[in-house]
Fold:
Amino acid sequence: MKRAALRLRSEPPCLSCLLSADCYCFVVKIGIVVIYVISGVAGGVIAGKMRGEQKFLWGLTAGIVYFAVLFLVSFAVQKGMPEEPVKIFTTLVLCGASGMAGGMIG
Structure:
């Protein structure tokens, strides 16, 4: 019995395991982060092109404004603090950094 259990653990995951709820949640979380980054970069590029000077600061500003909109919508929909403080800070850094990167690109 122990050998069968050890053998099962060393095999690659089957398709049903990959389509489980845990994997689906992980894919959704990755998709959300990708959308944050794409939106932040796009906003940073637009802000950088509009302002011309100090593009990285305008991109950072665009990213922070994007975060503020996300936060306020989450706050209104959930009628309170949307997430844990660590996740809020991580999202702020992610939006700001991607906006700044977009500003440098633009």
The mean pLDDT is 80. The CA atoms of residues 44 and 62 lie 6 Å apart. The chain is about 85% helix and 0% strand.
